[in-house]
Amino acid sequence: MTRTLMCFGDSNTHGTPPIVERGAPYSRYDDQTRWPCVAHRALGSDWTLVEEGLPGRTARFADPVMGAHMNGQIGLDIALNSHGPIDVMTLMLGTNDVKTRFCISPENVLAGIAGLIDVALGEVAQTRHGGFKVLLMCPPPVLEEGPFAGEFFGGRAASEALPPLYQALAEARGCGFLDAGKIIQVSPIDGVHYGPEAHAALGAAVAEAIAAL
User: Fold this and answer.
1) How many structural domains are present in the chain?
2) Cβ-Cβ contacts under 8 Å for 117 (sequence gap 6 or more)
């Protein structure tokens, strides 16, 4: 029986490499490098993969610069109605939510994540897909370095406070949990995105966490 994994997230799920300067041409890691693809290969041939990573996506905010569609609450509804049936969904958001323009607060970030989990575990989504499990992933803390340092001013402290909040929420909602910050770090090049080695390590850890579900 074939099972389906959907990975829902932002640029680090999409596979955006570290950015040296703002305005650089669009770039994306290939399917040998991106962590969802690494996880997929580790899970085996009886799994299919749906990648739902949108650069700039937040857990709950319409971005005044990048657009209202960056609100993950909108994107998740679309994704859950575009694909299926799915068996496991990974959810890793929160990096963009600690941008200064969104009023940085760990609790505000958590509220957005809670809303997404409630949608995923709600009767409508669960019935449509015949039931599926959620692996909540807390992204590693950002660094206020590189070309995005100004956008993430104050974001380091907020993102460092997220892991215990995410873990408690996962336990309360009956989700799996993975603290990515215990496995990888963001690249010092831009303080936000992951290098190839980080993608490899994270993909392997995600596969193990999914197997444990």
Assistant:
1) 1
2) 91, 134, 136, 169, 173, 175
